[in-house]
Specification:
Largest sheet: 7 strands, mixed
Number of strands: 9
Distance between the termini: 63 Å
Order of helices and strands: HEEHEEEHEHEHHEEH
Strand order of the largest sheet: 2-1-5-6-7-8-9
Oligomer: single chain
Structural class: alpha/beta
Helix content: 25-40%
Number of domains: 1
Shape: globular
Radius of gyration: 20 Å
Length: about 260
Amino acid sequence: MSMSKLPKEIRLQIWTLAYFSQAPRLVAIETHQHDEFHSKDTFCPRYSPTPAPTVFNICQESRAEAHFQALKAGHVVRLPYAASPDFFSDFYFRWDVDILFLSTTGPRVGHLDDSFEVGLLAHFREASAGTPTATALRNVSITDPDWTSYRYGGLSDFPNIARVIMMVDRGCLDGDVLQRTRAVGAAKRTVLMYRYALTMEAKKRGVEYKAPPFVLDFAILGTAGELQIIPREEWREWGNTGDEWATLEMGMGWFQ
């Protein structure tokens, strides 16, 4: 039977299911071309080059229903750009499953992308502020874990992160010792800074710190833009430090 012959309420349920059940998407943020001689205290114009979920490309009805569901769920993110109020950069991000992809390497990197105050991570925080899902970011993928925003605890503004994916070059797979050591060292620093921020926040609120579920992965970007996860038993040997520190539990690699 053709979809068009189904009752409308059934079709709408199908489009809704298609939207929420799509596999996790890797949603990137990039800086748009602009006049870079602006104040370093303001955000650059940014957008997401990631296509909308698949259901948006089926038909007008599926697109309208998926957009309605996204709005209702708080999945439409807008990155503010004060210099041009007419610049719109809405994109779709399902907070519970999609992966925020922050790249500070490659030809499309902007001049302030790694800034702690106005970089990619800070801009995403500004975009999500004031919404019911402001603290709902669960998954983040990082191309350069040694950049400023992570060294100084930028992830601490997102207290419910359950998975961090460290993107590495293929040199790590080919046995490049220097790349492997740097990747593991930067990842360890990022995890420990995040753990420290969470414990300090618990102390500030006068509650006992309870480590939330957390997963650290290393991955490379496949030719089709997909994540290729590196087995834990492989990367844990890269830096001669094991993987005991890759947790938010207290006492695991805390001072190492």
